[in-house]
Amino acid sequence: MMQRRTVAFSKDSSNLFFHILTKCNLRCKHCYINRDEHGRETLDIGTIKAWLALFLDRAPDTNLIFLGGEPTLHPDLAPAVRAARQMGFSSITIDTNGYLFHDILEKITPEDVDFISFSLDGATPATNDAIRGKGCYDACIAGVKRAVAKGFSTSMIYTVSGANIHELHLMPAMVKDLGIDRFFIQVVGIRGESAGANNDLQVTRERWLETVPLVAEQIAETGITVTWPKVFLNPGEVFECAGIVADNYFVFPNGRVYRCPLCEDYPVHGLEIRDNQLIPTTTLNETAFFKLTIPEGCVMNKLVQPGNITYGPDGRPEQKIACCMLKQEIVPD
Ligand code: SF4
Ligand code: SF4
């Protein structure tokens, strides 16, 4: 028996997506990092600790994800991870492109982190490396194997776009023997590098629905927990905006703190950190968008990636677009 569920939003726990730097060794085609909006700083260890404390004060049951750029390029990632563990975060994850700089696997133990998450965007080097850069496929697989051999729990993130959806069906066979624990399917966001790209990155509703749930099921059958975004609500399903009913914080090195990832290309962050204090911004910001009720569901999808939405002959949207934070999950027994 496998347990299938939509992961409900919860105010009882929060998720802290902490970009500790924006520097990266890669230039992926769909990268959402936008240094003009997110900053170019590498936060020092003192600042990282001070900022971590701000969020723990706000919600004690917080899952922490270290992000970049490439977080393993940060020379103090290991002490940052250990500090977070001591502070009592509910879970700690490092998202990496697989290069694992600064011998990070030698400096932390499987007790220090809950997951190391590896990004792979194709089942073959040809497809993955066309998106992420030459040599990335091999580096990622080698990184996963090293982490698994050292006893770390690992996950893999596959960001689906028009450039790689044709290889998603190859992933169940590919990951079967890798030893990963979780598989996350993401949908490409039209922001950062994707926003300016002249390409067909966005996947149609039909293609998404005929591909993703089936592959998720096949991967779950190999014993791996699979999570993917809901994207399209079924008729009658209630729309909810995570900006209102959940507690997610996307923190960037310039101090901007967003509650919605789709807002990250714009200076509409609802909070910011100044002098190590977390304060609400006073100009027009994302908080105002969350409350707008429109027949399409998510306001930010309508604004920044309307290609997701189809309309019937009566001019009404054929389905509501779910919040990009709403996930479905299959947990194998
Ligand atoms: S997607 Fe990640 S690995 Fe790729 S360029 Fe952006 S920060 Fe670097
Ligand atoms: S993606 Fe849409 S529904 Fe989700 S937090 Fe952002 S504005 Fe709200």
UniProtKB/TrEMBL annotation:
Known cofactor(s): [4Fe-4S] cluster
Family matches, as CDD domains: Radical_SAM
Domain of life of the organism encoding this protein: Bacteria
Pfam family, one: Radical_SAM
Domain spans labelled Radical SAM core: 10-225
Keywords of this entry: Iron, Iron-sulfur, Metal-binding, S-adenosyl-L-methionine
PROSITE patterns in the cross-refs: RADICAL_SAM
MF GO annotations: catalytic activity; iron-sulfur cluster binding; metal ion binding
Name this protein carries in UniProt: Heme biosynthesis protein
